[in-house]
């Protein structure tokens, strides 16, 4: 299973960009994270990702239409970590559970982020992706 086309385009854009442009792109994605709906304010029903240095919360649901709906919350003062949320939200919008589960675990290495940000941040991003996939599985993803 290939990753969703929107995410593949984002990966290619990052992988081919010079390091200084990668940092600008991360900042843009950090600003694109949509606000939480009222029912999730205060992180009700969200899971914290303790591997992140910054307080990071996520929720993944599978809609009745069979697509994955993602919600993220991370403080604006943590633009790199917040950018992970923006990248996943943009790249996985409208994706099926199978497509989300097919996202490679080394996503951020494929994007070339290991050369632009600290290994600790990359590990945090990888933990976000792992928890997101687990939530999709827990909510009936992959035909369960």
TrEMBL record:
Residue ranges annotated for the Fe-S metabolism associated domain, each copy included = 13-135
Q: Origin, by domain of life?
A: Bacteria
One Pfam family, short name please? SufE
Q: Which family does it belong to?
A: Belongs to the SufE family.
Q: This protein is called what?
A: SufE family protein
Q: Which organism is this protein's natural source?
A: Dactylosporangium salmoneum
